[in-house]
Design a protein that fits this description.
By secondary structure, the chain is an alpha/beta fold. The protein has 12 helices and 21 strands.
Length: 416
């Protein structure tokens, strides 16, 4: 998936059959808008590329954990990659099947392990020796067996932003490649541990195939060495990380990704697990915002909009580039604007130096906002979180109402 969820009809941006301006009028701004068709197409394209291999897509829900999106993917047959007890609760609330859940993360608590064991998840992706010991103890206490993979760190450079590279030796994630055989032997002697598979995740927004080829090949060599040692694994989880087009990147085609993995997996007996996040949702969403103030300071022109870094932190945190387009023709002059929010931080920007015709009151659409956007939002500056809608043809479903000021203080108390 490499193009935006919106298109222009009669000079106005639409998502499916609905003008974005109509959504803003009805639901206010800032507002996240997702396309059901784009989500469905992205899931199907990914899933079907692996149709000839035993596989399970476990959507990495951290990218966008909206219940409606989990519900949609669950109906399409998806499993889920979770990283917390909260994410497990969301899967269950959305009607997802815990037996299709893999649990990643470097710091699982005993309570989270217990909830996942009771729910009967497919596998724990174990990231340390300490976690293995905790999991063994929790499972023993419950009289259950914990299905386990080790997340092995293949020490491959995914050549992406350092904050989202996770498979290097210096990374906090996973267990060292060299340590894996010993950990597998140890796990296979533990009565409450059921050794099932192997796992990796080398990073995110990866736009080349070579790191995957290299890492999966390393992983499979390890699987063979383990088998020779009497430890047979039943699945191989290759993680997520496939990049999308935000600006001018050339993302790897799903078919090429599948072909590369197929070439390595041919003739093998293990089931393939995949954990795509961004690729399934990024370009199925846009954020609409309204221009509040146009101002000039020194040499720069600022368009202050009503969305901010608390709504979409990727530009501030990763220098990420998101497209910005006027929702309809503007009466304003085209100038090079920094598109900024009302938050009291100089780092509060959504886009820098974009030549756009803008007038106060105009609506803008910020593209590729389906992944790591709403899911990373906060209430900084006591800003209520945005509304989210999902468009299905001509229908607009409000899937999360805008937070109110009452919501902002609902969990707090004054002093006695
Ligand atoms: N599996 C594991 C274990 C992960 O940690 C992640 C993402 C994924 C799968 C999914 O990766 P994806 O297919 O979405 O690349 N907030 C950052 C991205 C952080 C990714 C964290 N882990 C961003 O906005 O770019």
């Amino acid at each position: 998936m490499s193009s935006e969820a919106f298109h222009t009809v009669g000079g106005e941006l639409h998502v499916e059959d609905v003008p974005l301006a109509a959504i803003a009028a009805r639901h206010g701004t800032p507002c996240y808008v997702y396309s059901r068709a784009a989500l469905t197409d992205a899931y199907r394209e990914f899933d079907q590329a692996f149709a000839d291999m035993p596989h399970l897509v476990c959507y990495a829900m951290k990218a966008n954990p909206a219940l409606a999106i989990l519900d949609l993917f669950a109906r399409l047959g998806s499993g889920f990659d979770i990283v917390s007890g909260g994410e497990l609760a969301r899967v269950i609330a959305a009607g997802g099947d815990p037996r299709r859940v893999v649990f990643s993360g470097v710091g699982k608590s005993d309570d989270e392990m217990e909830a996942a064991l009771r729910a009967g998840i497919l596998c724990f992706n174990v990231e340390s020796e300490s976690e293995l010991a905790h999991l063994g103890a929790v499972a023993t206490r419950l009289g259950l067996r914990a299905p386990v993979s080790f997340r092995v760190n293949p020490d491959v450079d995914p050549r992406t932003h350092p904050y989202i590279a996770t498979g290097l030796k210096e990374s906090k994630f996973g267990v060292a490649f060299e340590a894996a055989p010993r950990l597998y032997r140890e796990a296979s002697t533990m009565p409450a541990i059921d050794v099932r598979g192997i796992d990796m995740h080398i990073g995110s927004q990866i736009t080349e195939l070579a790191p995957y080829r290299e890492a999966v090949a390393k992983l499979l060599a390890l699987v063979d060495a383990l088998a020779a040692d009497g430890i047979a694994l039943s699945h191989v989880d290759v993680g997520g990380g496939l990049g999308v087009r935000y600006r001018d990147e050339t993302p790897v085609a799903i078919a090429d990704y599948a072909a590369a993995i197929r070439a390595l997996m041919t003739g093998r007996r293990e089931r393939l697990l995949l954990e795509p996040g961004r690729r399934l949702v990024a370009n199925a969403g846009v954020l609409i915002a309204r221009v509040r103030v146009l101002k000039r300071s020194g040499a720069r022109n600022f368009a202050v909009v009503d969305a901010a870094m608390n709504d979409l932190i990727r530009p501030s945190l990763y220098d990420a580039w998101h497209s910005v387009q006027p929702v309809r023709a503007s009466s304003g002059d085209a100038l090079a604007y920094d598109i900024v929010g009302p938050v009291c931080e100089s780092g509060d920007f959504l886009a820098l130096d974009r030549r756009l015709p803008l007038a106060e009151g105009d609506l803008v659409a910020i593209g590729s906002a389906g992944a790591y956007a709403m899911s990373m939002s906060s209430n900084y500056n006591a800003r209520p979180r945005a509304a989210e809608v999902l468009v299905d043809g001509r229908d607009v479903h409000l899937i999360r109402r805008r937070e109110s000021y009452a919501d902002l203080i609902a969990h707090e108390s004054r002093l006695p």
